[in-house]
């Protein structure tokens, strides 16, 4: 029961759910109950590791929870786009289910006097730094560092994932408007 629910939650978060309306309803229900961060981080990691090794062999195969690619764009599309949108502007498929809309990640440099805050973005992804926005202050965004570690124990690969995500987010920054 718990395994299936966790897989469905992460499936919805990674845009792999075939029925996005069902995924959004499930996420809304969990978010309203305040259980999403607890389920994904607290219970999810040990169970998800078990799901990958003891998954069912009949019926529809559950989608992978870890992708082999460590390319920033691939990681962003798999793990981040469901909330932030493929373009990073905060218009992902599950964004309507969130209490506070995800931020537009393409304007981080603009909001930081033209300089992309790479160290800060990395800190947020790892869970070492908190954002002052209501969405992130309430831990609505999954902290990907521990999640990656729970899904793949190789520290060097997970560090590369975080670094590549940061570089990709930097690459999608909106260009400064000419005066």
What would you note in describing this structure?
- It is a single chain.
- This protein is mainly alpha-helical and 179 residues long.
- The protein has one domain (2-171).
- Helices cover 54% and strands 0% of the residues.
- α1 (2-13) packs across α3 and α5 (118-126) crosses α8.
- The longest helix is centred in the first third of the chain and has 19 residues, at 36-54.
- The protein starts with a helix and ends in an 8-residue tail after the last helix.
- Residues 1-20 and 29-53 have low confidence and may be disordered.
Distance between the termini: 57 Å
- Over the alpha carbons, how many angstroms does the gyration radius reach? 16 Å
Structurally, the number of domains stands at: 1
Order of helices and strands: HHHHHHHH
Low-pLDDT windows of residues: 1-20, 29-53
- State the helicity in percent bands: 40-55%
Largest sheet: none
Tally of contiguous helical segments:
8
In short, what is this structure?
This protein has 179 residues and is an all-alpha fold. Helices cover 54% and strands 0% of the residues.
Defining traits:
179 residues, globular, mainly alpha
Give a topology summary:
Elements: H1 2-13, H2 20-33, H3 36-54, H4 72-84, H5 118-126, H6 134-137, H7 144-151, H8 155-171
Helix pairs in contact: 1-2, 1-3, 3-7, 4-8, 5-8, 7-8
């Amino acid at each position: 029961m718990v395994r299936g629910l966790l897989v469905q939650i992460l499936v919805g978060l990674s845009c792999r759910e075939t029925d996005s309306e069902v995924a959004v309803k499930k996420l809304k229900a969990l978010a309203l109950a305040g259980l999403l961060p607890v389920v994904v981080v607290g219970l999810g990691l040990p169970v998800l590791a078990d799901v990958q090794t003891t998954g069912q062999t009949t019926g529809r195969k559950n989608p992978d929870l870890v992708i082999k690619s460590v390319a920033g764009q691939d990681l962003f599309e798999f793990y981040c786009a469901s909330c932030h949108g493929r373009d990073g502007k905060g218009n992902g498929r599950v964004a309507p289910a969130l209490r506070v809309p995800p931020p537009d990640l393409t304007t981080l440099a603009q909001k930081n006097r033209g300089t992309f805050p790479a160290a800060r973005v990395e800190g947020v992804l790892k869970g070492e730094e908190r954002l002052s926005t209501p969405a992130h202050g309430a831990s609505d965004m999954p902290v990907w560092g521990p999640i990656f570690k729970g899904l793949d124990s190789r520290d060097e690969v997970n560090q590369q994932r975080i670094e590549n995500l940061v570089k990709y987010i930097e690459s999608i920054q909106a260009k400064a408007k000419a005066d």
